[in-house]
Amino acid sequence: MTVSALELVSVTKAYGETVAVNAITHNFASGSYSCLLGPSGCGKSSTLRMIAGHEVVTEGDILLGSANITDLPPAKRGTAMMFQNYALFPHLSVVDNVAFSQKMQGVERKTRRARAMELLELVHMEAYSERVPDQLSGGQQQRVALARALVTEPQILLLDEPLSALDPFLRTRMRAELKKLQRELGISFIHVTHSQDEALALADDIIVMNNAVIEQSGAPQQVFNAPTSEFVARFIGGHNVMKTDAGLMAVRTDRVEMARSGESTGAALSATVRDVEFLGSVVNISLDGGATGDLIATLPDSRFFDQPVEIGESVFLSWKAEDAHHLAA
Ligand SMILES: Nc1ncnc2c1ncn2[C@@H]1O[C@H](COP(=O)(O)OP(=O)(O)OP(=O)(O)O)[C@@H](O)[C@H]1O
To answer: What biological-process terms (Gene Ontology) are attached (predicted)?
Structure first.
């Protein structure tokens, strides 16, 4: 199967007066894992639902390869959606849940059950085929929902907060399984999340949304290392946003060097230790940077404990010029 790229061209969604998505343009590369990342209400689910065909596009176009799919019904688009609550039919067995869409297409029973069993094997759920959803754990229900979405052989799988119903341990495990599945199938996954960690761990391409627009997109390392706006620097986490004479700047908290007062450094800033938080492998030191604002220095635990600082102590902070990035306000 050839997998096409998906393109959003100036796509807008308005619900009456509310503009949920405002003229966004983005190219999702074929066979890539993309995460739509942003806070609640930024328009990511509306974007996903328009791609799926569950929501009418107010303006703009959605192109899949050379086809304009903007106005096609969901089943004719080459996309499939996996919902947050999995939306399994409670009275149908696992295998019948997975085979359901083929039944609707008139595929004969034996063929559709065989195909459903193939998909259940793919997600390691073949042993549970005759159970009903209530007899499965959250993680198992999610696997069945995945199999059900994939049975239609979509070019693009759309996932709306697929991991949010799982406990933290299972979430990390399923995250790895989603990524592996996407790699094996070679189709595109577009995954909506408000979790920075999830997006950084999974995505080839992160699309950060805020207030109905795309603030920044790119590879995880690129977005994390060089946020271009204050919003992205704060939302992606791990950054200090500093007020300087040259405007707002971002520096990763783990790129801040800390020296004690009196030591000779090319210090950029003096600051006072406000708090020390031990996080296992690293220690976060909260600092009062005066007019520059509050900062955090993240040190490896061994470095911190070699020369621990006390709350109230004065320190000098510095960083390499290339680690500081100008931010749009
Ligand atoms: N059916 C609807 N009718 C009216 N307004 C809506 C509707 N669906 C969403 N909205 C509004 O559109 C905006 C974007 O909503 P959307 O669900 O796309 O955001 P989101 O980023 O996915 O948020 P969340 O993470 O909370 O699901 C919000 O202001 C929301 O209140």
So the answer is: quaternary ammonium group transport
In this structure, the residues whose C-beta lies within 6 A of any atom of ligand 1 are 15, 18, 20, 38, 40-46, 194
CB atoms within 10 A of CB 148: 25
Taking the model in full, what pTM does it have? Answer: 0.90
Which CATH number do you get for residue 139? 3.40.50.300
Specify the pairing of strand 205-210 against strand 33-37. Answer: parallel
Identity of residue 54: H
Are residue 11 and residue 99 in the same domain, yes or no?
yes
pLDDT tens for 225-268 read 999 999 999 999 999 999 988 899 999 999 999 988 655 555 57
Distance from the CA of 110 to the center of ligand 1, in angstroms?
41
Distance CA(92)–CA(121), nearest Å, equals 18
Do 145 and 29 fall within a single domain? Answer: yes
Neighbours of 73 (CB within 10 A): 9
In this predicted complex, what is the ipTM?
0.96
* Closest C-alpha among 157, 24, 8 to residue 81: 157
Within 14-134, residue ranges assigned H as helices are 44-52, 94-104, 109-122
* Residue 233 covered by a domain: no
96 & 186 share domain? yes
Q: Whose CA is nearest to atom 4 of ligand 1?
A: 15
184 and 261 in a common domain: no
Average pLDDT for 296-304? 95
pLDDT in tens, 159-170: 999 888 788 888
